């Protein structure tokens, strides 16, 4: 089955530790995106990547880093510089030329203790 | 970053009732998307709209792209318990993978028997 997978589903970390969230897609989509969702709010864009080895900052990139070494993978690192990292993190992907439809993974809930 | 105004914030309705929610923006968009999110999951795309004035249906769901390009609405007819969730609108100005989505704050729908 084609789709987007995120792992793990739940993640707990101590304050001050870096943590990496995984996002993999087998849809052959060109672009991948990371969003953050806080309770009662919409989605805010952290980083996105249109092609391999290239990525752009979104609206709330501070305290986060990404890499795009392979088309199917776009991991997100939440660094200790992120002041309020506890949130629900969503990865999405989109194929160039197929309208503007982004498809989402199931999400990772990160809790920093 | 901008977020769209989505209303109502929440709705409590009885099974069988029709539902209407809308999204407004101070900026114009070329695309409107409607997503549904269930607790602890990623958003799922329901309907995509690409042309001002366009009216599109997907089963019991109907959505319209406002003629001013600054608004969109989503109707659900004859609601059922599995319609429960949070519905998000998203607007996009450009096309392709470089053009970012702007999300609404969500409408939480509860359906009682």
List the helices and strands and how they pair.
The complex is a heterodimer of chains A (113) and B (113).
Chain A: E1 4-7, E2 10-13, E3 19-25, E4 31-37, E5 43-49, E6 56-57, E7 64-66, E8 76-78, E9 87-94, E10 103-104, E11 108-112
Parallel strand pairs in A: 2-11
Antiparallel strand pairs in A: 1-3, 3-8, 4-5, 4-9, 5-6, 7-8, 9-10, 9-11
Chain B: E1 5-7, E2 10-14, E3 19-24, E4 31-37, E5 44-49, E6 55-58, E7 61-65, E8 71-76, E9 85-92, E10 101-103, E11 107-112
Parallel strand pairs in B: 2-11
Antiparallel strand pairs in B: 1-3, 3-8, 4-5, 4-9, 6-7, 7-8, 9-10, 9-11
Summarize the structure in words.
The complex is a heterodimer of chains A (113) and B (113). In chain A, strand 5 (43-49) and strand 6 (56-57) form a beta hairpin. Chain A contains no helices and eleven strands. Chain A is 0% helix and 46% strand. By secondary structure, chain A is mainly beta. Chain A has strands spanning 4-7, 10-13, 19-25, 31-37, 43-49, 56-57, 64-66, 76-78, 87-94, 103-104, 108-112. The model of chain A has no long low-confidence stretch (mean pLDDT 92). By secondary structure, chain B is an all-beta fold. Chain B is built from no helices and eleven strands. Chain B has strands spanning 5-7, 10-14, 19-24, 31-37, 44-49, 55-58, 61-65, 71-76, 85-92, 101-103, 107-112. In chain B, the strands form two sheets. In chain B, strands 2, 4, 5, 9, 10 and 11 form a six-stranded mixed beta sheet that branches. Chain B has a five-stranded antiparallel beta sheet with strand order 1-3-8-7-6, with no helix packed on it. In chain B, a hairpin with an 8-residue loop joins strand 9 (85-92) and strand 10. Chain B is globular, with a radius of gyration of 13 Å. The mean pLDDT of chain B is 92.
